[in-house]
Structures are given as structure tokens and as C-alpha cells.
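Researcher: Last one for today. Full complex below.
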Amino acid sequence: MSKSIIKPIFSSAMSQVTVGDTLSSDDPIAQQIFQWLGNLKLLHNVPFRYLVPDERLLPPESIKFFHLDLNWVNALVDGANSIGRYATGLDTQTLYNKVEGSLGQGLTAGSTLTARNNRPNIFKAPAPNDPAPFEVVTGFLLRSKVVKGWKNLQVSAFDKNNYPDPPNREGTALPILRFEHLSEEVLIGIFEGEMYRLDIHEPSEGLHFGFDMAQGDLLSKNLRNPIDGTNAGAGLSPTDLNNNQVFRNGNAGSPTTGNPGGQVINLYNLSVLLNQKLNSQGLPPGYTEPAASVLIDGTSKNVSGLSDTMNPLVSSDFALQMIEGVGMVSFYNTAPGDPIDCTKNPA
Amino acid sequence: MAGTIVSEKAQFIQHHLPGLDAGEYAIEVQHQFAADDDEQQIPGGVDLTDPLLYKFAISGPQFSLDPTLIHTVFPPKEALGEFSNVLPHVVLSNQTLPWIRKPITEDGHTTLNTGSFPDGAKTKNYDLDIPSWLAVLILTEADLEHSTALQQTTVQNFFSNGNDVFISPVFGQNPNNQPPWVLPSANCQALKLPLDLFSKLAPSLADLFMMANVRKVEMSRKPAQAGSDVDELGTYSMVLGNRIPVSGQRHLAVLVSLENMGNYLPDHNGNPATMPAGATYALLPVLYSWHFTSQGDSYQFEHLLECLNDRAPNGVPVVPGPLPQARLRLYPPDGSTGPEPIEQGFVPLKHTTRNNVTTASWYRGPLAPFAFDANAGAALKVFQTQDGAKSPAIFDADALLRLDPTNGLFDLSYASAWQLGRLIALQDKNFSIQLYQWKRSQASAAIVNMEEELIQETFPEILANSSSADDSTQKMLLEGTLGELIKRTERFKR
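Model: Here's the assembly. Have a good evening.
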């Protein structure tokens, strides 16, 4: 009689050994543990030699693509989680093993959730709060002078069915789980999902300003349509630049000749010229008042010698015209094996 | 996370003006009494208090700049590359810096003026630019032969040069009239240029109107250290240079202050202004400087990326095409396929076993060269236990050793991963203690839970039976409950 009472009671008590509550609760200790394991899941603190055991795998000036071996990561996390684990044999019915098993589950879910949230949290973006196990995680290792020279270079990874291509250039990038410098020349990027295309951009705040190269070392400048950023056709030819005193001191606008103080640009003249060209094609911005409207303290400071010309472009419009397109190279994972295609995007 | 829609856009903004320009200010406060009442004629009012004058100053970088305000420079510092068509620039992390001071000597403050233009039937307004007090000057080696290189000096020394040195009339015409917040002993850098070279290099006042702007960019696709804190939209101000680098030369780029220099800058065609009599040199405060070299060899971003993995290094331009050896695996130099483990990304490593036998074993890190089935490897399914009933079966790393029966070699990958995880956790004392204690507390909570339930459900039955049943039945019930409790608890303690 006694046994019949006790058995069902025990099984119902045992069924409550879960950490479901811990996940949703505000237990700060649990949150810290999840945070730590979440970082470990994305290979933080893992010595580089464990990631790349042989230098020949990642020689200088190379990029390598990988699939994250989730079994390896699970083994790593389980190793960390093994602290305080007693060897109690394989009897899965002991209370201790039930507790351990159910804690392990909770830790897996909690750390996966924080691994997903970590990067959005850095940027104060909405966090996905998704504890589901990782299915496919891919990434790349880049070892190059590019990493050193362009510290803030940007990446976007896309899966096969959703990448931006002309004409609409819209796609949904895979969530970035981790994107970090491992050393001065090595960068790691880890994404959730199967990466089909990887775009590496020049950092957009490092966009540079300058001219285009016409034939024979001469400089020219293409115009950009201020509405959609496309090439606006007829730009400034080397002759235009010369005739309008864009180059100071009679410099011919060739980058190869260097005389002291040479090759200085009269930005004002250049800006006026750009405004004229845009206006003649009926493109914005459209302000055409005479140059005398450069005002300081309400007094017009006449910038001498430019009667009959237009306003210069204001600094923001001028910057838009002078920007040289951001460099971008796309890598396509065309086949399951080698090689990977690489194209320079006509951005 | 559904991912981010890629609509990478950078915004350009004309300027971000500070609330108050840097400088000295005074507020005068006085309490006056006045009345409009006809019967009580108080002509001019009565001063109830003496005027009080409060002075304050808005300080801001003037002769030197905290280097952390320099976000980035282009061309990159010490870069070697083809920069002969670019205008070098400096990106500053302070949005208002280029406009906190003025390049013109006028008293008072520059007001923002608007212009307008017809747009169809409507009239559109726009802001006119405010000139920047900062400029980027580019000097070639040839220029540097004619000028003194950068000098380290102090603010005091900056103002005490001979009569042949022209300095900006920053503090009116009297350089000794320094405001109290300027520290004379503060270090600063200065560049001494012959006047004719200064007039050749310096931008005109008109140029300064378009040499600075503000840029807003999206940050979330850039590298970031874990745990750091970055705004999703970054706002930077930017100062542009006015000279294209000379091919084949090393250049010095300097961010200089042109505060109150407006009257001495060349006109927009580069004709020099009238300089003060007797001066042969101009001395400029340098807020930041860096070197780069422009040369024929392409250091351009795209070129470097396209040349990765030894692809067509001589092809000019590099033709986009297949990128060889793009997986994380060893590639036999002769281009042949290696043995199967090599193809799968394994690396043979020296392995000293427990009984001191040296052998070779396979290892592969977490970065596998091929699509991975997370459910492969039955031995590892324990980690994906979905039902709480399955216990963790790994008690030491050896449980994850795998033997390739075809060649008798071990695969150490997962064993070393497990051991590494354990070592990393132990290395972090805080974490390991925290984890251990948390587990104990969870286990104790589970036991308390179990006990309470057991007692709650059994005692009512015992009590209910107390009137009808005899003592021996009660005793049996009670013993059964307590016995099971002890048994279970002991099992746990084991």
C-alpha cells in the first residue's frame, strides 16, 4: 500500500525539475552564466591555434569560408558546463542526473539566446530573444592587409534566395552573430544561416573624395544624380577642369607632375562648376543664385572674379558629388566544393 | 532576428552647428523697477540692484586635439598606395568640431543665412554654408624641403616667435592677451611654412565653406568587440583636404587651425592675399598629422580583396573569377586532392598519449570546410538532449575520442574541444565558482521541491487514516515516506 502512494508522488515531483523558470526569470546569476556560455558558443576565449591549427590553413592574404561545426561547439560548451558534474554513472533516473540534464538543457537554450542577442545589444538594436538551437552557422576568416588598412570595413552575408542585385538591390542580410578582429590582420565573421554571398565593403565613413581617372593620367569627374545616386552622364572633362581654374597655379591636372605647392584644387571653383553642370542637365539641387550670396554676418562677402556664375554647391551636395563609390567585392559560394566566385560589384 | 534589410545609405549633412561657439561670454543681470502708471511717474525706472556681470567661457580644442577625437583618416596612416586622384580627409568623432570656431575675424557670431530658389511654382529654401576653421593641408617631400618639419612646442612659445613669423591673430592683435583658460605651458604642434608656400597650399575662404560636412552612417555591419556599446547610427564630422597627392612621393598630411586667418588666405583662384609686412613665414597650429605614400602599386581595397588566396597577382586589372582554395583545409601544393581526412578539413598533429607514446592524430577545429549536419555523430547527440530524462553522459574528454578503424588513428577534435571548454571555464575563477554554486542551488531547490510535495501529498492521507486505521498502518505509511525520502536524498549526495 505504501508503495502505491509513493511512486506517483515521486514522478510528479521529478517532473518539476526543469529550469524553464530560470530562463524567464531575472535570476542575475543565471543571466551571467548564460552570457559567459553565449560568448563561448561564438568561440570567444578559444585560442587561435584551436581555430586554425596549422598556419597553412590561413596563409597571409587569404580568405577562408567555413561552416561552424556545432558538435564541436556543443562539446566545448559541455566541457565548460562539466564543472561541478559528479560521475554518478549512467543511471538517468537518479535525481542528480535529472537535475544536471535539465540544467544542461536550460543552459543550452539560455546561452543560445544570449549568443543571438549579443550583437544587437552592442548596437542597441531590438534583440531577437530566440532560444532555439542553432541549425546552420557559417562564416569566414580574412587575413589581409585590408583588415589593417580599413579597420571598419563592412560585411553583409546573404543566403541563396535573398541577395541584393540590380535593379532593386534589396535583400535581407543574414544576422551577424560575431564580427570581430582576432588580431591586427585577422578578422572573423560568423553568421546564422547558410552564406551564399558575402559582400565586403569599404567602410562607409571612410568613403573617399576624389576624381576619376581619365586616359593618360588626366583627372575627370563623373556626375552623380542627386536623386538616385546613379551616374548622371556627361561629367567634367579634363578640359573643363582646366578651363575653370579648378587647379591652382596653372597645374595641368595630371597627378604625375609634382612641383612645390602644385596640384592644389580650388574647391570653390570646382563646386560652382559642378552646380553649373547639374543645372544644365536639369538636375537638383537647383539653386542658381550668383556667387555673391556667400554671406558672413549678414554682409555679402563678394568672392571676386566670379560674376555671371552660380552659387557653389553647399557642402553636403558637394560631398555627394565628390564621393568616389565605395569599393565592394562580392564572393559567391557557387558550389559545395571549390572554388568560390569573386566579383567586383558594379556599385 | 529576421535580419537586416540592406539599404546601406550614408547621409550627408551640411553642418552641425554648436549651440554656442567656443569663446568668452558674459551675462549681465540687473533688477529694474519701472511703471507705466501715469500718476506715479518714474522716468526711466529705478535700478533695484547694481548690474551683476557673470562671465563664462566655452572652451574647445584650439591648439591641440585629443587624438581620440580623430575617428579615421584617409588615406590610412602610413599607407602605401595609389592615391593620386583622391582628396585626403579626416573624420572626427565630434560632430560640431569644424564649426566651434571661425576662420574670420569679425566680431560677433556667424549667423546662419538661408538662400532660396524657385522649384516649379514653389520657392525652396536652403541653408548657406558656414566656413570651417579646420583644414587639411597636404605637403610633399619637395614642400618639406622649403619648410621646417613639424615642431613640438608649447602654446606660449607658439606666440613668442620673431617678427618674421606670421601667426594667426587668434586673440585679437595682441598675442599676449590670452584668455584665462589657455594654458601657456600646454604642448602643441606647429608647422612653419614660407609665406609663398602657405599661399599656394592654403584653401581660400570660399573653399572653406565646403571643406567640412557631417555624415551619418549605419554601424551595425562593422566589427565590434563583444560587450562594447555602439550607437546604431554613427554621426561624424569630416574635414576635406584641397590637394591631390603626387604620385611616387611620401606625403605629410596635417589638420591645421585657420582660426581668424580669413583675411590672409588666398582668393578662390589661388592669388595670395596681402600678408603682414616683414613676415616671411607663417606658423600654423597643427592638431593632427599623419604620413602616407602615394605610389603606383595598387593598394586599393578592391584590388587587395580580389588578389586574395594567390589569385592572379599579376593580372592588371584583376579579372573577377573563381577564388581558389577558399575552404579551411590543407591544400596539397600540387593541386591534387589529399586523403579523405584532409579533404574534410582535418590536420594531422603530434599526439603524446597517456602512456607516453608519440603518435599522430587527427584534429579539426570548429571551422569545418563543408556544410555540416548538426545531427551527425550519434555519440554527440547527448548535447542536444531534448527530453530532460536523458542524462549528460560525458564525464571526461576520453569519452569523445574517436578511432578511425581503417587506419587506427584517433580523431581528437571533440575530445580537445570538451577539454578546452573545461579549461577555459576553470581559468575564469568567477565563472567556475558561480556555475558550481548555481548548480548546487538549483539541485537543492529541486530536492526541497520534491520533499514538500511528498510531504503535502502523503501526510493528509496519513492524517485521514489516523482515526480508522490502527497504529501499525500509520507507522508503515510514515516509514515508507521517510524511507523513500532518505533513499532519494542519499542517492543525490553520492
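Chain B touches chain A through 195 residues (CB under 8 Å). Chain B has three domains: 67-219+230-294, 340-414, 430-493.
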